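Entry for the shared binder. Reason: the reviewer on the internal report wants the predicted structure included alongside the sequence.
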Amino acid sequence: MKIVDIKSELSEIVKMPVEAYFQRKVHLQEFIKKYEADDRAGVVKICQSAEKTIAEIDAELIRLDGMYFYERENRNKYPVICGVDEVGRGPFAGPIVTAAVILPNDICIPYLNDSKKLSHQKREEIYDLIMEKAVSVSFGIHSEKTIDEIGVGKADSDAMKNAVLGLSQPPDLVLVDAFPIPGLSMKQIPIIKGDAKSASIAAASIVAKVKRDRFMVEMDEKYPGYGFAKNKGYGSKDHIEALKKMGPCEIHRKSFIHNYI
């Protein structure tokens, strides 16, 4: 077989969808076994690349095992556990979006991490997988108008509370990033940088981020000129220049931008 065809065969394995991530290892092992006797330098190099990918999968499994620590440690006492996170505290425009996610006990979703550490494409893929596999997902959203009326801190905590209460199954335990959520009766465990330490919080951070980003892309079409599709409402240099030139639109947070108009 030509080296280019062998390389293409490996590429197809590596490009398997995220949901088949852990099955890649078996396919890679079979691939190496198939070509390990071929002593052509190009084939040897391709097999070494496959071995490197296996090592990356093993490392991801170890990392993910750590991400499930809080869920694993508390599952016996609190059978139903949700993770909660938010996105959108700091932007000049658009809503705060929070999410609460209950993951099933018998699934390990690859790449679960702080949403900011993932590429746009990876977030989109994992969002679809979480929405398909999760026991329940709920969103809490407060508009820029509410943020202006009650303040970003109150809007944030209120939206997180709404996300938890909106779950189809009431959780026994809430894992939350950084600070406990006021007004909830169930047990909470606040975890500093929780979106990088808890699978449930990471899942919440990803779905909240994707939902808000998609909304801001829609707003870019409705309110062109501010660059919402790119900056997602955050105060980038181009966004500030557009504010000075055009003034605010309906989804700008007036309490955030008064120094720029």
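Summary line for the report: The longest helix spans residues 41-67.
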